Known about the structure:
This protein is α+β, with helices and mostly antiparallel strands. Helix content is 34%, strand content 31%. Strands 1-4-5-6-7-3-2 form a seven-stranded antiparallel sheet.
Amino acid sequence: MSFFDQIIGKIFPRQENPSPTSIKEILKRTDKEQKKYLDWLSERHHEPLVKAISQAYFYKKTQISSSIKIHLFNSQGAEGFAIDYMPAIGQENFQHLFDYLKNRILEINYFLQASERRILDKGSYVETTQKYYLKPKWKHALKDQNILNQLYGNILIELIHIDRQPGYIKFLVTHYQDRLFTPALDYDELINCLFIT
């Protein structure tokens, strides 16, 4: 190592584990992406996929295996599921499914609180997370002046890509257990709303 390299090394030491590079931006669909999604709906391409996922979800609840891999989450204050990507679904269909889930929730008195894309370079791979965070429309969901109707709770929908390849979609509902809010509505009823085509 030259004398110059030694001096530079002392002034600017190399980091052994540099922190990952992260980009965070608002998630907004282009006009072209929106048109593709609307065509997907109008041509009813969503129906067989939603039906297959619905069937896989209910199979999973009864511990019957399915060609579509679904994972269920159930803890105090949170319930949900994740759908693993498989090539038979197709990348574009998987992307549209993510938007479809969000739009189904918007139809039942929810609003989009946050919509973002985060790209994280983890060194050996790049993870991209698209996220929708939805909340009940409080002004329309007011039961009376003292208690807010939380409907089903707050809803997080994420689509994870690893090195630009889809990984999974996560759908998670969290609810308040607080006297300022009504008890959350039945989660199974929400699932039925999601999977009706």
